[in-house]
Specification:
Elements lengths: L1 E6 L3 H11 L3 E5 L3 H10 L4 E5 H4 L5 H9 L4 E6 L6 H9 L2 E6 L6 H23 L6 H12 L7 H8 L3 H10 L5 H19 L4 H7 L5 H12 L3 H6 L3 H16 L1
Parallel strand pairs: 1-2, 1-3, 3-4, 4-5
Length: 258
């Protein structure tokens, strides 16, 4: 089960987060930055939900330090929207927040749960980026990272190319010369990496993961695990989760480059 730290002063907002987490995440409510840092020293933390009204007051210095010391932890900002808060919301994007939740607007259980999952996907992209060897064409790496951060969406090769601002042929050339799978297969690899990350720290069922990542069904998800990874979801979880899936993709790229 994944661990989510919080720094939230409003009891109602903390209750909404707990409702969104349900039995998929362990919530540890912290009272101050000192408790947040000490908790991270003692256990693996997957995400932190920070109320910007207190976490970024009087400055973003503690947030900057936290991100530097804990680069793999996904940051989720939680704030209210008022004209006075616009600059804080803008600054949040500069300091490594993977998602932003607006109180009383998109902090219902379903929306909050989706924000947590999307933030985690962006955190996975960071892990992948740090573990990839330089590609012959940088667009290949950009395509993989984009596919990971958009794994919750119904990407196609055409929409992926559009996200990168190029045509389909240009994307295909970049992937080919870099030893990457085709765009269609790359999108599936990205979804499987994120799916494995969801299995790493939660008790999400196969069907829940399939629904989250827009697979047609749990059976379709399991079939793709067997086709691409030669393993069942339970075996992927036991053998390393996201690190295993990324390692298989990376090995395949290296073999094609050689």
């Amino acid at each position: 089960m994944s661990v989510i730290l919080t720094l939230i002063s409003n009891p109602g907002r903390l209750a909404r987060l707990r409702s969104a987490a349900r039995d998929s995440h362990t919530i540890i409510a912290c009272d101050d930055w000192e408790q947040i840092f000490s908790t991270c020293d003692g256990r693996v933390v997957h995400a932190a939900v920070l109320d910007l009204e207190i976490a970024a007051n009087p400055s973003f210095d503690s947030i900057r330090r936290f991100k530097r010391l804990n680069p793999s932890v996904a940051l989720i900002g939680y704030t209210i929207y008022t004209p006075e808060r616009v600059h804080h919301i803008f600054d949040a994007g500069r300091y490594g927040f993977e998602a932003l939740v607006i109180a009383d607007l998109d902090d219902g259980p379903s929306a909050f749960a989706k924000a947590i999952e999307k933030a985690s996907a962006r955190g996975v992209a960071g892990m992948v980026k740090n573990g990839l060897a330089p590609a012959v064409d940088r667009m290949a790496t950009d395509a993989l990272l984009t596919a990971i951060t958009r794994a919750h969406e119904r990407l196609t090769p055409a929409t992926l190319a559009n996200e990168l601002g190029v045509g389909g042929r240009r994307l295909s050339r970049a992937l080919s010369v870099s030893g990457y799978p085709s765009a269609h297969k790359l999108i599936m690899w990205a979804r499987l990496i994120v799916a494995a990350a969801l299995m790493d720290g939660t008790r999400h069922s196969t069907d829940r993961i399939a629904l989250t990542l827009s697979f047609p069904s749990g059976s379709a998800f399991r079939n793709n695990c067997r086709r691409y990874l030669a393993a069942k979801p339970s075996e992927i979880r036991a053998r390393g989760g996201a690190a295993l899936v990324f390692g298989l993709l990376r090995d395949g790229i290296a073999a094609r480059q050689a």
